[in-house]
Every structure is written in structure tokens, then in C-alpha cells.
């Protein structure tokens, strides 16, 4: 999806206008970097994308612990001494990860990420092929 120009990076930068946020990356389910915010270099973003792919896979495999193995995974929040990592589903086969300090307003970040997911979903959806019949 990212052809090397990081065409969706501006959307991630926009999400980081919240106080106490650090970095944002958009990744595919198989861990490939799709876009990254300006504050994180491409090499580091690629490394983090691979890790986040594993994290979402582990989280999804624990759905049964929540009551039903078929339940839909939506978000994982990991807490560290220096802050948080929010990982959310961003569309079919895409995930959004945001890093923040320990002083971030977690509720605000979660809400803003859901807004961003809605915007990204429109960008990640393939447009209809030219000449295709769009009538139902």
C-alpha cells in the first residue's frame, strides 16, 4: 500500500496532535509497514510493524478467554513504565499502532484512534474498477 512515498503518513501525523503521543504506524496483518508518522524513521517503523503484527496475532488468539472464541478483536493496550502502546484494527488486514507517554489521556487516544480508523478505512478501500457496473 505504501509505495515508498508514505502517502498516508499525514493522517498519522494528524492523529499525533494529541498531547503526550509519540509515534504512529499503519501495518498489514503480516507485519509490513504501510505508513508511518513523521516522528519515527522508516527502519524503526518497519521493526515495530513486525512486532505489532505478532502482538495482534497473540491478542486475537486469546479471544476465547473473553468468553467466545469467535469474538472480534478490536484493540490492545500495552502499558510500560514510560507509557502505552495502543494497537487497533484499522480495516481488513490493517492495524494502527500509536505510542504515548505515561501521562496521556487514554480515553481521548482511544476515541481519536477510532476516528482515524474511520478515515483510514475510506483510504484503504479499493475504488471500483473503471467501467464496472456498480448497480446492485
Automatic annotation (TrEMBL):
Superkingdom, taxonomy of origin: Bacteria
Sequence intervals crossing the membrane: none
Matches recorded under InterPro entries: Mycobact_SerProt_Inhib_Rv3364c (IPR053141), Roadblock/LAMTOR2_dom (IPR004942)
Domain Roadblock/LAMTOR2: 9-100
SMART domains linked to this entry: Robl_LC7
Protein name: Roadblock/LC7 domain-containing protein
Phylogenetic placement of the source organism: Bacteria, Bacillati, Actinomycetota, Actinomycetes, Streptosporangiales
Amino acid at each position: 500500500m505504501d509505495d515508498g512515498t508514505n502517502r498516508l503518513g499525514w493522517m498519522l501525523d494528524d492523529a499525533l496532535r494529541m498531547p503526550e503521543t509519540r509515534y504512529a504506524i499503519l501495518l498489514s496483518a503480516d507485519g509490513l509497514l504501510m505508513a508511518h508518522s513523521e516522528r519515527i524513521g522508516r527502519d524503526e517503523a518497519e521493526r515495530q510493524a513486525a512486532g505489532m503484527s505478532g502482538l495482534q496475532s497473540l491478542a486475537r488468539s486469546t479471544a476465547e478467554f473473553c468468553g467466545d472464541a469467535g469474538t472480534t478483536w478490536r484493540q490492545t493496550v500495552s502499558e510500560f513504565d514510560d507509557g502505552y502502546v495502543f494497537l487497533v484494527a484499522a480495516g481488513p488486514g490493517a492495524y494502527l499502532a500509536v505510542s504515548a507517554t505515561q501521562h496521556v489521556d487514554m480515553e481521548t487516544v482511544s476515541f481519536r484512534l477510532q476516528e482515524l480508523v474511520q478515515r483510514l478505512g475510506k483510504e484503504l478501500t479499493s475504488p471500483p474498477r473503471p467501467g464496472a457496473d456498480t448497480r446492485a
